[in-house]
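Worked Example 4.2. Consider the chain below.
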Amino acid sequence: MLTGFLDAVFNGISIGSVLLIAALGLAIIFGLMGVINMAHGELMMFGAYTTFVVQNVCKQLGGFWEGIYIFLALIIAFIFTAFIGLILERCVIRYLYGRPLETLLATWGVSLIFQQFVRSVNWVLFIGLLLFSLLFFGGLWFLNSRTNLERIRNWVVGVIFCLSLGLTITTGNLLSQTYQLAVTQPWFGAQNVDVTAPSWLQTGIALGGVQLPFARLFIIALTVICVGGIYIFLQRSSWGLRIRAVTQNRNMSACLGIPTQKVDAITFALGSGLAGVAGCAISLLGSVGPNTGQNYIIDTFMVVVVGGVGNLAGTVVAALVIGTANFLIGSGTLALLFSPVKPLADLLMFFATTSMAKVMVFLLIIVFLQWKPAGIFPQKGRTVDA
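Applying the procedure from the previous section yields the following structure tokens:
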């Protein structure tokens, strides 16, 4: 029984590690900008799909590349999701600061768009988006360089949009009629895809009768590196100092010459990149699908709230506790542990499924927040007032 309990704790810690990586980015974003980003789970999904694509490319190359693809996937997933986050902040979030409800609704809509994009994306859609972006944003760049068009700027922007959209739709129709299924077939579809871990991560070691898979040990090590990297960045770098200053007092930071808009953009990109890294870790635990992010976003928000908004230490503690509790309850380990106490064992057995375990953990969190509404490590001093 002790061996099974230790094995369950280890698996719970590995799941908590994934939650921690994702929650780090969410805690930074929510703590700095007060933005409730419901699309954070879809950024994790993009990171997982990036891992799948990099894996397939490296399999084609074979040999050395097939063994190290996970490291390439981590780097590319971080850069790719950080870029998506930067675009999201520039085009949507920037206009909704100070309005939490609007950011929640807007990012929820973005999350639905991202999910459907993954289900439907094909060469026609990809080429169309690329063409539209080049035409529309290129037209805006040209417009910004012409000061003599300021009076009719809104009309010109409308004309550029209509022309870009018309040319994009025409090009898409031509491609569909010419190449048909070769171009219109979805890249991923609605079905889940599998990511195979490198051969050196497919085994494990036995320690005290507990089997420790290398894949889960890799996730835990990755989490430690991410936490350490974020801590060093926030505490030792100049941009980290600016982020902490804006978190403490945005207005005063702006008065002192800190570019708060640039800080917001960098912070959102950093948080989004961490979500991509978390998605890469998720791909090692199971299959990847369009709804992958939805399976983790609620737990990630619970980690941020329970730990204390914007608090790194609280996020670490909350992620490990929630991840471990979910696995211990969902796997039935706690029910077996308390089998001598019949009523408690029956109650725990009722919740011994993945979905019901989330319900019980959520109820426990509600009770905890009644006692400490600001989380494990609440904000203090000027941070609360800012």
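The radius of gyration is 23 Å. DSSP finds 17 helices and two strands in the chain. Compare this with Example 4.1 before moving on.
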